[in-house]
Design brief:
Layout lengths: L1 E6 L7 H8 L5 E4 L8 E5 L2 E5 L12 E4 L4 E2 L1 H13 L4 H4 E4 L3 E2 L2 H14 L11 H9 L14 H18 L7 H14 L3 E3 L1 H10 L4 E4 L24 H7 L6 E9 L2 E3 L12 H9 L12 E3 L1 E2 H11 L3 E5 L9 E10 L2 E3 L11 E9 L16 H14 L3 E5 L7 E3 L1
The protein binds guanosine-5'-diphosphate, 6-O-phosphoryl inosine monophosphate and magnesium ion.
The site of magnesium ion has 6 residues, from loops.
Length: 420
């Protein structure tokens, strides 16, 4: 049996904290897509940790953590992260498994990401510059190198071949930066990678399922950043939705039971691209300040706005969300008034669908106002004790989406979660 936790917005919904909270109920925690563009924040014994490559179950010592075939793996980031978790007393070599089919992010992928973004100028995606797009391009273009290739004698010659190809592309961009230190780091890090438990992920996970073990698939990014269904071209390069679990781990759709969709009580986006409910005013600033809305991977300020029920409805549909987990509700504690977006006004017409594209049309959010709860909820642990205005807000969202909000997160801590 497989349950999924994934983001319903533009990433950073608090997936890391939620996976860490749910991990005790599962045997295997598996990442199925994305790479080091992800930044999942956890608090372990009060200490903040940001994970980019390692699944967020790593701090539960009896759990298996798997990096699936759908992930693009940055060996340099993985090495640093392993050192960090080891310093916190975690024996990662015991519990971390990597699929041999996961593609490797090469130093030239990072360089190509940077060169491509520079060439786009004002139209840049706002990529995290971790080499994600170029690595997935090499996967679908059937050029990339995989973790399993590391064990092959011909790895270096394959590497040189692809590097030459990349160099020609970099030259066409007139990219001048010296990447030799990136290459040194890469070769040092892949040596460490060879010592990991490199497995055939699809047999590994299906064997576990067969044995009755419970698997939790951990999404990265968010549904609105999905390469097919997100706000293209301002998206990431992987399938961030529940369908990505099947192709990113090698499991059949009927094995998936619950799809837990994580949404903030408001909305954020980092990088470029449309964001209908964005607040370019002091309320947006206030939410950024109270919510510490700065990227966990890049440190960039996140754009903030009201919760967007049109986009959430769409995300629930394409993912088959069974339960919603609402995070960062405490960030709205002091606000006198809240808004939710119930429709888009597109070229003067009210629509309840996410359109093909949002940049070439005049799009205004239709907002419904709610009175804020203006109560500190961070120490509350029972649904009954929550302020009535907050319950009104959540009830409305429940009814609108027709998917229940089952968990309410009211702080970054492991225990700050309320069952609704
Ligand atoms: P992820 O990428 O989805 O794992 O989310 P990030 O870690 O990038 O960003 C979420 C941020 O919000 C992190 O700093 C978390 O520690 C924090 N966080 C998660 N849930 C809550 C919550 O309910 N309340 C507050 N105040 N912070 C939260
Ligand atoms: P987590 O897992 C928020 C955004 C980038 C950029 C776009 C493409 O922490 O939620 P990429 O580097 O993938 O080519 O960037 O996607 N992005 C994220 N935004 N959270 C993330 O991950 C993100 N990963 C990528 O900012 O707009
Ligand atoms: Mg994040």
């Amino acid at each position: 049996m497989v349950d999924v936790i994934l983001g319903l917005q533009w990433g950073d919904e608090g997936k890391g904290k939620i996976v860490d909270y749910f991990a005790p109920n599962y045997d295997v925690i598996a990442r199925f897509q994305g790479g080091a563009n992800a930044g999942h924040t956890l608090y372990v014994n009060g200490q903040k940790v940001v994970l980019h490559q390692i699944p967020s179950g790593i701090f539960h010592e009896d759990k298996i953590n798997l990096i699936g075939n759908g992930v693009v793996l940055d060996a340099v980031t993985l090495k640093k992260e392993c050192e960090k978790v080891a310093s916190m007393g975690i024996d990662y070599k015991k519990n971390l498994y990597i699929s041999e089919r996961a593609h490797l992010i090469l130093p030239t992928h990072r360089a190509l990401d940077k060169a491509s973004e520079l060439a786009k100028g004002n139209e840049k995606i706002g990529s995290t510059l971790k080499g994600i797009g170029p690595a997935y391009m090499d996967k679908t273009g059937r050029n990339g190198l995989r973790v399993g290739d590391l064990l092959d004698k011909g790895f270096i010659s394959q590497y040189i071949k692809i590097r030459l190809k990349h160099q020609r592309l970099l030259d066409s961009y007139n990219f001048q930066e010296d990447i030799s230190t990136w290459e040194d780091d890469f070769f040092e890090s892949i040596e460490l990678l060879k010592d990991f438990k490199i497995v055939n992920g699809e047999y590994f996970i299906n064997d576990k399922i067969q044995q009755g073990k419970k698997v939790l698939a951990e999404g990265a990014q968010g549904s609105m950043l999905d390469v097919d269904f997100g706000t293209f071209p301002f998206v990431t390069s992987s399938s961030t939705i529940s369908a990505g679990v099947c192709s990113g781990l090698g499991i059949a759709p009927q094995k998936i039971k619950d799809v837990f969709g994580v949404s903030k009580a408001y909305c954020t986006r980092v990088g470029s691209g449309p964001f209908p409910t964005e607040l370019n005013d002091e309320t947006g600033e206030l939410i950024r300040k109270i919510g510490s809305e700065f990227g966990a991977t890049t440190g960039r300020p996140r754009r903030c706005g009201w919760i967007d029920l049109v986009a959430l409805n769409f995300a629930c549909m394409i993912n088959g969300v069974t339960k919603i987990i609402m995070t960062k509700t405490d960030i709205l504690d002091t606000l006198p008034e809240l808004n939710v977006c119930t429709a888009y006004n597109i070229n003067g017409e009210e629509k309840n669908h996410v359109p093909f594209q949002m940049t070439q049309v005049k799009l205004e959010p239709v907002l419904k106002s709610f009175a804020g709860w203006q109560t500190d909820i961070t120490a509350m642990s029972e649904y009954e004790s929550l302020p009535q205005n907050m319950k009104n807000y959540i009830d409305y969202i429940n009814k609108f989406l027709k998917v229940p909000v089952k968990f309410i997160s009211n702080g970054p801590g492991r225990d700050q979660i309320i069952l609704a």
